[in-house]
Amino acid sequence: MAATTTCLRCFSSTRTAADESVLAILSGSTAARAPSPPQRAGGSLATRVAREAGLDRQTQTREMVESERRSQFQRQIYRKWQPGDVYSPIDLSGAEQKKWKTGRKKPQSDAFDVLGINPVLEYKNFTIMSEYMTETGRIKHSKDTGLRPKNQRKIAKAIRRAIGLGLMPSVHRHPLVLKKSSPMRFL
């Protein structure tokens, strides 16, 4: 049987620029200055095969340093990229990564869930409805109300229902609510 060379994908015998930079970093460390134990000429068959395949101790430390470096970069990237995602270099900047780190957390429960109230059935209660409307009669955004999406849709439906039935004004807040908020205006 003829001698064949083994192919190890992740272990290359050629040095790359990245390997050279890692070696330069390692050569400056205090661990590199410590005297290394003398190498035995012989050794077991497994040791010689591992050394020939590039699995000696020095290669392992280089791989561990490179692995640690990769994991540190991974910790800085908070967005989970999917195959086929298109990105620009600005997406990899620190400011963009910070946006993905914080993220927007949707509320799991809100006031209606805690009290067990269905917002659609409260369309006659203009006091509750006016809390979720602006001074000009517009429905507030969910980031202002703090409601979860399902209840935000229900409260919006209740407000539109109350306006449609004529129970609430569509262009301003209800007069009784305005009177409670600023009584000096109505003297």
UniProtKB/TrEMBL annotation:
One of its GO terms (cellular component) is mitochondrial small ribosomal subunit. GO terms for molecular function: small ribosomal subunit rRNA binding; structural constituent of ribosome. SUPFAM superfamilies: Ribosomal protein S18. Keywords: Ribonucleoprotein, Ribosomal protein. InterPro entries: Ribosomal_bS18, Ribosomal_bS18_sf. Gene3D superfamilies: Ribosomal protein S18. GO terms for biological process: mitochondrial translation. It comes from the Eukaryota. Belongs to the bacterial ribosomal protein bS18 family. PANTHER family: 30S RIBOSOMAL PROTEIN S18 (PTHR13479), SMALL RIBOSOMAL SUBUNIT PROTEIN BS18M (PTHR13479:SF40). This is Small ribosomal subunit protein bS18m. It comes from Ophiobolus disseminans.
